[in-house]
Design brief:
disordered N terminus
Length: about 475
């Protein structure tokens, strides 16, 4: 990425963040109660507010007389009401009843029931919630959270029996001491001492796990090889929502990971809001995963590194492939040029949703719209008063050329392109409201690398690269014919 592109991207991200959080609110309409105020905020300020209907009925309010930021406006307006608020995103607000929940700091220590030693990386989370944490090296944990009195705290660790503690039974004035007992097994059990799937190995220095897609094949739960989904199976890595790009390494968040393909930083690793991988696994040879302790030359992230490589000059024969699944059509190839020991690898994929909306696509679409269908389970039919229409297209392409100039000199050239176009509308006839959102995303990059092998112990590698990322998202609410 050039300095000019980096500064422009930084300026835009800071500007958008400030705009989302410092939106100025001043209500001049006639508002009788909280329910009226919610309608005005959603229709005129493009806010999406979630609440229980019974919590906002007949709640009188007093509006601030001057323009305030969104946070200050909500604090003053809800000050003398039984409700609190939480801003989950730039335009998404959650209203909650203060009497149903409590904010507290939970703390404690988790021990092994055999040696009475602290357990590191034990899971601490609230049941039916994404709120949680891990224990530190001394077995201690701290978790600040908002919970209802009916919630349950869960403590678990692989190979141990999990404990569930109702919040009503907790003494919130002191830290917990939790002892986990070993899980009981029958006399006939198998102890796995290494990865049982070919193609997964640990490097000699022990700091990285390498996945070789050609040898690995399809893992349980997959319908086709997917390098990013396969990474979810590694210890210390989890996905909070099950999506492809939601890779949490050692408790970190996905935006703290560095994903590279042929030294090109990838800022958008999955299509359709994280549900479809941006990489054709047929052209990925190795995926090197660092779960901490990675070299300084990677840099730029604090959680983990995923370094993807396509086949190099070791290609033995030319191969081509094409086909389709229920989401896309693809073509890929590995070409060997014997004359100058050069190879070319390419891949292209395009979505099918424009011409055919498969059951798989419809299922993914319903899941992505679940944030606006809070009270309707995914496995239930939509009521007749709700209509969803969306149009989604994606295209991705990879091209790599490897050229062995001499026995000691080699040049690799790579290009990556990723395009997403999405338009959606959710119409609710009960409240006469239509929610519209659209996305236009481009991620592309180019790299050229020169390698010189001076001898067995000394190697020089020079890499030049450029990357560009454009993300344009628009959300609007049309209520009773007004935008």
């Amino acid at each position: 990425m050039t300095l000019k592109s980096f500064l422009l991207l930084f300026f835009l991200s800071v500007t958008l963040n400030l705009f989302g959080q410092d939106q100025t609110i001043k209500i001049t309409d006639s508002v009788n109660d909280l329910k009226d105020l919610i309608s005005v905020l959603e229709s005129k300020h493009q806010l999406l507010i979630s609440y229980k209907e019974s919590d906002v009925q007949n709640i009188p309010i007093r509006l601030p007389k001057k323009a305030l930021s969104l946070t200050d406006f909500l604090e003053q307006t809800l000050q003398n009401t039984p409700l609190s608020f939480e801003i989950l995103d730039q335009n998404y607000i959650l209203l909650k009843n203060k009497g149903d929940q409590t904010t507290t700091l939970l703390c404690g220590t988790v021990y092994d029931g055999i040696e009475n030693e602290p357990l590191e990386f034990a899971n601490i989370y609230i049941l039916n919630s994404q709120t949680g944490t891990l224990t530190e090296s001394n077995g201690k944990f701290k978790l600040e959270t908002i919970f209802a009195k009916t919630d349950t705290l869960v403590i678990s660790y692989l190979g141990y029996e999990e404990q569930k503690i109702a919040f009503g039974d907790l003494d919130l004035n002191k830290c917990l001491d939790v002892v986990l007992q070993m899980q009981e097994f029958s006399s006939d059990f198998v102890l796995v001492t290494d990865y049982i799937n070919d193609g997964i190995r640990v490097e000699k220095n022990g700091v990285a796990t390498v996945l070789t897609t050609d040898k690995m094949g399809i893992l349980p739960g997959q319908v086709e090889p997917d390098v990013l989904q396969s990474i979810h199976f590694l210890p210390g890595i989890s996905s909070a929502d099950g999506s492809v790009e939601s890779i949490h390494i050692r408790g970190g968040t996905p935006d703290q990971n560095l994903i590279l393909w042929e030294s090109i930083p990838i800022y958008h690793s999955a299509h359709y809001f994280g549900m479809i991988s941006s990489f054709n696994s047929n052209i990925i040879n190795d995926a090197k995963v660092f779960r901490g302790g990675f070299d300084v030359d990677y840099g730029g992230r604090i959680s983990g590194v995923i370094d993807l490589k396509s086949p190099d000059t070791e290609i033995r024969k030319t191969e081509f492939g094409f086909g389709s699944n229920l989401l896309n059509v693809f073509a890929d190839g590995k070409i060997r040029l014997k004359e100058n020991k050069s190879t070319v690898v390419f891949s292209m994929r395009r979505s099918l949703s424009n011409g055919w909306r498969s059951p798989t696509f419809e299922s993914i679409s319903r899941r992505n719209n679940q944030s606006v269908l809070l009270d309707i389970p995914v496995n239930e039919e939509l009521p007749t008063f709700i209509k969803i229409e969306n149009d989604f297209t994606f295209f991705d392409a990879n091209l790599k050329g490897s050229f062995q100039l001499t026995d000691k000199d080699k040049v690799n050239v790579a290009f990556f392109y990723n395009k997403n176009i999405f338009n959606s509308s959710v119409q609710d006839d009960n409240v006469r409201r239509v929610q519209l959102d659209s996305l236009d995303l481009d991620n592309q990059g180019f790299s050229i690398a020169y390698e010189r092998q001076w001898n067995k112990n000394i190697q020089t590698k020079i890499v030049a690269l450029s990357t560009d990322y454009q993300y344009v998202y628009d959300y609007r609410v049309n209520s009773e014919g007004r935008m």
